[in-house]
TrEMBL record:
<dbReference type="Pfam" id="PF00583">
    <property type="entry name" value="Acetyltransf_1"/>
</dbReference>
<keyword id="KW-0808">Transferase</keyword>
<dbReference type="GO" id="GO:0016747">
    <property type="term" value="F:acyltransferase activity, transferring groups other than amino-acyl groups"/>
</dbReference>
<feature type="domain" description="N-acetyltransferase">
    <location>
        <begin position="1"/>
        <end position="147"/>
    </location>
</feature>
<dbReference type="InterPro" id="IPR000182">
    <property type="entry name" value="GNAT_dom"/>
</dbReference>
<protein>
    <submittedName>
        <fullName>GNAT family N-acetyltransferase</fullName>
    </submittedName>
</protein>
<dbReference type="InterPro" id="IPR016181">
    <property type="entry name" value="Acyl_CoA_acyltransferase"/>
</dbReference>
């Protein structure tokens, strides 16, 4: 078991993130260093164990690219990354997070995300490459509304 003090950090898209996403069969075609996706990663002893991204789409965020190294799955890292991304999204005053998944709907459901019809997606979300072309039509669309972030919470800058 790893120590609970693994460092969570904001990251710029790079080859290390790309390699982890590809190892988890997640799309990378639309990702580059200067795009709208803010990445957050978790490391242990210098190795990237997991990553998550939030693509900012106006007042909304598209939660994407949750990837955990295969040797570190089922240790709570995914939950920590989602929680961190949600806190960041609240601090930058996003109203809601959306996501598309082909196999993690149960995981996200346990974290408060609800299934929504794709037709209910805000236009800012439907305009993203992930929604419009990269994820299959069979992907499950999910939503979670965000409250106002208390300013006294730990900073996730």
């Amino acid at each position: 078991m790893m120590p609970s003090g693994n460092a969570l950090e904001k990251m710029t898209y790079n080859q290390e993130i790309k390699a982890l996403l590809l190892s988890c069969d997640l799309p990378v075609a639309d990702l580059q260093q200067d795009n709208r996706v803010c990445f957050f990663g978790i490391r242990h002893e210098g190795s990237l164990l997991g990553v998550i991204g939030v693509e900012v789409c106006g007042d909304f965020g598209l939660l994407r690219s949750l990837a955990i190294a295969s040797s570190h799955r089922n240790k709570g890292l995914g939950k920590r990354l989602v929680s961190f991304a949600e806190k960041w999204a609240m601090q930058v005053e996003l109203k809601a997070l959306y996501l598309l998944t082909t196999e993690a709907d149960s995981f996200f459901g346990r974290l408060g995300y609800e299934r929504w019809p794709r037709s209910a997606a805000p236009s800012r979300i439907t305009e993203t490459p992930q929604f419009s072309t990269l994820c299959p039509d069979a992907a499950i669309f999910m939503h979670k509304g965000l409250g106002i972030s208390p300013r006294s919470n730990e900073s996730v800058q």
